[in-house]
């Protein structure tokens, strides 16, 4: 029996790592996450083959820009061990790493950005507390239901 496919939304600032960067490299470790809840989603929830909505944040038009896939099981984020890294964590050890990541594989770019402003009017259909439209939410990785995945991708223009 195979596990049920899950869906996720992962945010990245395009000047740090964009959908174009992922398309160019094909597969990339999703490093630098330093939020325990987001880490737990990657460590405990994500499985190879799960779908990812790739979201550009902190940009002129924030929104969903592509689709990717979870390409590996969770493993320790090497940046936590590197004193030169912005993501170094001196309390983390190789024996007991604090931060985990998964590899993310490019699937496709959307024909155009599904802007946050286009998503907000669907807040009720997405459900109470959906992180993209909830006030104050800063999570960079969070689960998306199959129904939310379908609704969000239905907003992609068929041009």
Automatic annotation (TrEMBL):
Pfam families: EVE
Domain of life: Bacteria
Membrane-crossing residue ranges in chain numbering: none
Domain EVE stretches: 6-154
PANTHER family: THYMOCYTE NUCLEAR PROTEIN 1 (PTHR14087:SF7)
Protein name per Swiss-Prot or TrEMBL: EVE domain-containing protein
Source taxonomy: Bacteria, Pseudomonadati, Pseudomonadota, Gammaproteobacteria, Lysobacterales
